[in-house]
Write a structure and sequence with these properties.
150 residues; 5-stranded mixed β-sheet
């Protein structure tokens, strides 16, 4: 059976606006991603005091993996109103982490990530292979995840 799905363009807008001392500073940045054929959006509950693997990616995906070569856009939003989560992205033999505060959002516009074990500038990136999340709080935390691939 042939697919009847027609790829589309995803548009992402990031807007900032603040007025300080009567002067408004605002900016909207728009990014478009052509030929998006797969779009996954879900809310996941992360149990208290646990680490979980959110997603895995591979060049030749199997089962529930996403195709790392086709990843165009990823967004993870912490829906909790109090607690942060720790988001870890890994590639090859490195990993890097980012705190996502309550109500905060992490975005990735492409498939490149890296990590370092020292206070040195990272000079190369690798293809994302795994996303983990850590909930250190005493209660479950909901997060929303959006993944768009070609």
């Amino acid at each position: 059976m042939a697919t009847t799905l027609t790829a589309a363009t995803l548009t992402v807008n990031v807007s900032e606006s603040i007025t300080l001392n009567g002067t408004t500073y605002d900016q909207t940045v728009t990014e478009t991603f052509a030929s998006i054929a797969k779009f996954d959006k879900r809310i996941i509950s992360i149990p208290a005091s646990t680490s979980s693997t959110l997603y895995t990616f591979a060049s030749t995906p199997a089962g529930l993996q996403f195709d790392s070569d086709e990843l165009k856009y990823l967004r993870i939003t912490n829906l909790d109103d109090t607690n942060q989560v720790i988001l870890t992205t890994s590639a090859a033999s490195t990993a890097g982490a980012q705190a996502v505060n309550a109500g905060g959002t992490y975005t990735l516009m492409g498939n490149g990530v890296a990590g370092a074990g020292s206070k040195a500038a990272i000079t190369a990136i690798a293809v994302l292979d795994t996303i983990f999340v850590r909930n250190s709080s005493g209660a479950a935390i909901d997060i929303e995840i959006v993944i768009a691939t070609a």
